[in-house]
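Re-run with default settings, no changes from the original entry. Doing this only to confirm the output is reproducible before filing.
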Amino acid sequence: MTEDDLIYLKKWFSDYTKSFYSSNEEYQRNIMLKVEHTRHVCRNIIDIGRDLSLKENEMILAETVALFHDIGRFPQYAKYKTFKDAVSVNHGLLGAKTLIQEKILGNLLPWEQELITLAVKFHSTLAVPTTVEERTKFFIKLIRDADKLDVYRVFIEFYKSPDDQKASATAHGMPDTPGYSERMLESIKNKKIAPYSEVRNLNDFKLMKLSWVYDLNFRGTCKLLQERGYVNSLAEVLPQTDEIINVIKNIREFISERVHNVEKV
């Protein structure tokens, strides 16, 4: 891939996403949420890539993966009016299908096309698939980190925004009720990703997002997470119980250990 290839793909992405624009304020707010998210994820993947000292061609490929990682969100929302995969469609799989149907990657080398398509397909799965080859697996890990990092920003802004400015699809329709699931806390205590299937309300949703720190792949991601204060911001909008305070403390310590580790992965 070359820089010219990326410029062309960015123009295509802009034209494609504009085809989903609407005069309906709520609809447009949700579409723009994903446009802005994509821009931030592209910046994140560049920052993480620099920390890893990636070569120029690797950086271009990484940014292309970031550019298209959520391309399936646009037809998903247009058809189902939700970003909740469980009640609509797997947006990673839809994104991969969209890239193939649109033939937008046709000018790239076959291995580049396959890598980008697989990274889009698997960026949101519970775990990185073991069946893909190592180079592809590396880029899947990159996009998963860059994506998670910006999802923290998206949700923090959502929780702190006035109701009339919130993108309605952000919280997947979860009720803002008191309390939280003990099973969510147990997962975090065991340094595991809290399962989406156990999410019952917004507090559970926040805890699930916090559990993602245990799925981050690169030191650079943890550094950015720490520098931006995302864990602290999420902690502020959770119930201040002793067990949650203790869980947050453990998460902060885990991130600090990752940041000060000499290994970049």
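DSSP finds twelve helices and no strands in the chain. The chain has two domains: 3-148, 174-259.
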